[in-house]
Write a structure and sequence with these properties.
CATH superfamily of the largest domain: Jelly Rolls
Strand order of the largest sheet: 1-8-3-6
Largest sheet: 4 strands, antiparallel
Helix content: 40-55%
CATH topology of the largest domain: Jelly Rolls
CATH architecture of the largest domain: Sandwich
Length: 191
């Protein structure tokens, strides 16, 4: 798992190997079993964030009819931010559940701030990662909003084909904004 972290440190920083190893040694890496909730909708705000080293985490919420609606899947080398620092009285609008057995880097705001003071390039790296993530998320969201259901499915085939094998069809359907039956029809048409 260290090699994934080293890859990011190499890509975004000029830290020495010793500095990179010191940072990795300070990180908390936790294994979570499939079905473990990282946060539940309605829970108190969290100051935690995660980085997926292995596995898949699903983000979903219950709509007004009590149905689960999947809003994201986080897989290898993706960050999950839960910082609600600006709105401490707001409860979580969604749940995060481990879709598979997962290995995650777990951090909190306080420990990150300490590491940023010690390794200033780490803060620059994190900002660069988050800027890239935000730009990608904004572009994907804009494409998603203006796309037909079939085009959304084709985007998954192109950009995240692993999800087709990793998540149940009904969860993928809500993520794509359609019913499982519609997804089945689209899959048959494309095949």
């Amino acid at each position: 798992m260290e090699e994934i972290l080293m890859k990011y440190l190499d890509k975004y920083t000029t830290l020495t190997d010793a500095e990179q190893q010191a940072i990795i040694n300070e990180l908390i890496i936790v294994k979570f079993k499939k079905g473990t909730y990282l946060i539940k909708q309605g829970d108190s705000p969290s100051k935690k964030c995660f980085f997926v080293l292995k596995g898949c985490v699903r983000q979903y919420y219950l709509d007004e009819d009590g149905k689960e609606v999947t809003s994201n899947f986080y897989t290898e080398e993706q960050a999950i931010l839960l910082f609600n620092d600006g709105e401490p009285d707001q409860s979580s609008d969604y749940s995060l559940i481990c879709q598979e057995d997962c290995v995650l880097v777990v951090a909190d705001l306080e420990s990150e701030q300490k590491m940023y003071k010690q390794y200033t390039e780490l803060e620059t790296m994190t900002r660069s990662m988050m800027e890239n993530f935000l730009a990608k998320a904004q572009n994907e969201h804009a494409k998603f909003i203006r796309s037909s259901p079939e085009a959304r499915y084709k985007m998954i085939l192109q950009n995240r084909p692993d999800l087709l094998k990793r998540v149940p069809q009904h969860q993928l359907a809500t993520y794509l904004g359609m019913t499982p039956e519609s997804l089945s029809r689209i899959k048959k048409r494309i095949q």
